[in-house]
Task: structure prediction
Amino acid sequence: MTKLKYKSNLNISYSCKYHVVWCTKYRKRILSFDIQKELKHILETTCLDARCELFSIETMEDHVHILVEADPQFGIHRLVKSLKGKSSKILREKYKALRTRVPTLWTNSYFVSTVGGAPLSIVKQYIENQKNR
Result:
């Protein structure tokens, strides 16, 4: 049996892990291999800046899955907003096709689920197997 690991800041101890999924606008298949590679780097950097731990990322041509732990005082909504906003800005500046094919890169919505008692290895395996579906 694995021991739960908690993080802490000055005020609280926590373990808040989330599975988050979001899609491209109109579910267009516009995230090419090169864009996906750059997107992963942007998401990793953004999570580091927000002091959130990114356990797993899987990108497809039309959506993104991540497994992340976020400080509850920072909030998952704020983190997702930052991830989507920064990645959209950087990718749309670099890749003209992302500016011309869709009015915005991402939809306004996203899916988020707390991981709860599920072992992280199982959730990571699910996310990593998304491309094989």
Summary: Residues 13-132 form a domain with the Alpha-Beta Plaits fold (CATH 3.30.70.1290). The first helix runs from residue 33 to 49.
